[in-house]
Amino acid sequence: MSKITTELLLERAVPRSTRLRKIETLNLSKLQLKTGDLDPRLFSRLRHLQKLDLSDNLLDKFPNSLSLPDLRVLNCDNNKLEDVTALKQFPLLEELTYENNVYLTLNDDYKVIFLLQNLRLLNGKDITKLANQVRRVNSHKLTSKVTAHWEKFFRDQLPEKYTAEQVKSIKKKFLKSVQTNVVYGPSSLSEFTRWRVKMIAEEFLASSLGLELNSDTESEEKMDEKEEESTKSPGEDAEDVAQVVHIYDPLVTVTPSKRKRNHSKSSPGNKRSKTKANTEKEAAEDVSAEPLHFLQCHSKGNSREDFKTQLWSCVFEPVLDSGARKDPIVNSSRTVATCGGESVCLIDCETGTVLKKYKVATEEFFSVAWTTLTMVISDSRKKAHNILAAAGRRGIVKLIHVAADFCYGEIKAHKKPIATVCFSPTQETHLFTASYDKRIALWDIGIPDCDYNFKASQLLVLETASIPLRIALVPTCPEQYLLAGCEGGCFAWNIKLDKEQKSRPFEAIFQFPDEESMTTSHRVDGLAFLNDDVVVSKSSKPGCIYLWSWSRSFDAKGKGCQQTISAVILAELEWSTTDMSYLTLSTCPAKEYVFCGDEKGSVWMYNLSNYTTAWSSAKGKRSERRISPTQILKWPELHVNGEQPPEILVNNVVADPAFTYLVVLTSVNITAIWKKS
Question: Which superkingdom does the taxonomy of this entry point to (predicted)?
Fold first, then answer.
């Protein structure tokens, strides 16, 4: 690939030129140029350049100092641009095109319209009317909201005589608060709105109050922008968005200090009074969590009156830094994917911002899962990208390239609904789908090429005796054994692919204590590994949560075909005695926590770090008494339009790997986000 030289610039000028300062039109398309090839020192000599064509190259951004003071027309089609803010260095720009840059979204369109005051044509379309809205009306309304937010919440916090440290503290709090709470326009433009609100807030502090800006805010903004890609929905118009209800929204008030009284069967008076006292003592020592956001972003038809849509699954996005991915704490992200009803949402847990929303009008999504694929993007370059799989009632898996805001394909996996999906931790393209057709299928989803062509293939089918509800791969041998909690019990399969048999029956079924004896016949609607060996499972029949040893249970099986195995119980967790089904559990292995919601909107949290060492011993005995929760997070009194939502069931609750955030999915279309303090 040729680097840009003086000779190349003179040759590619239209018409050819003998001096750089005489060039007015320059064609640098189809040269495989990368950002580092745009040398500012060389470009600074193009003082009279008015038209520049950089299409069909490999640019991922613009250098900040190209010094083209007279540039009027710029073509950047078919590149890899990820950000547009550097284009503000071309203030006279009138025509700009950057189509087929898959990482740019509607939010970027609005940013360049605001930054380039002379811009008339964007991607071939006249933006005159829209520009007036963005540059004037939008700015005026946001400025009013920012000012009002300061006056209402922050003005009285600043004393008449203040220190530099006080100024720094209140500025940080204000910038964070105003970006979270000032909402305007559709949620598909929330990234742009947040970007403008931050800009307006900084200008307000500097001009009106004399609080000068610090350079650290710029680095914070870059970090925020990296995490908050876009809110444009694949296949959606900008107007077709969800209503997001924050706890700070005037339509919703929440009073965390006032809790609902728990009248559930899980607190039967004197019998557990000692346990409750122990729980409160442990909670005070170990855990402190506060409600951060309550969001209503899965509404059918975007209706704020929708309190019927059930939310089922959520999973935190993995961090792309491959060097840190083996460490679950470093691998912690604040972006979570949630699903329920006809939509899948990506939410920034810190700000409560819905970053993206994907909707299929005829679908009801039940499960989502992440994987990271290393894709060849162009010029044989490889880049890691997070891919989200979503599935539900239609039996179809949707594959979404999140950074590109694009659903690039689907797999018609089953003829009946898919209850849950999960990716292999060792094979990035291997996806398991568990369906109401009483089958669990293993798929190789392939890796899409630069044109998003891919080929999926079915590798294995596991036959189940009843509908599979939850699946988990055994951490010590994820390529050999899979566990499933089903309507009719808990089963295990050998999934090793070196066997010829592509359709396999289960290898073992586990039996658990019933009221009087051991039983295999019970619904297992919660299943997860706490560590490499300890399995956590919930059965709706006994109304309890068991912890048991995978290795000690399965080793007892020995050689042979299908066999009934007694689970080696390590402990039993005290939980609600409700007979309500499908209130599933989750674990945070790095912090040794178990979480499970109940029928009253509460979240039961168990810190098991004091028990796991004893359980790891081959002679580890079962705990004599039930382990009580470390803390129970009660549902706050939440008012929407002056009314409380109907009875709240917690369908799912998931923590990020570092246990910074706790995401609670409910039966009333509300996603609650708690933050550990």
Answer: Eukaryota
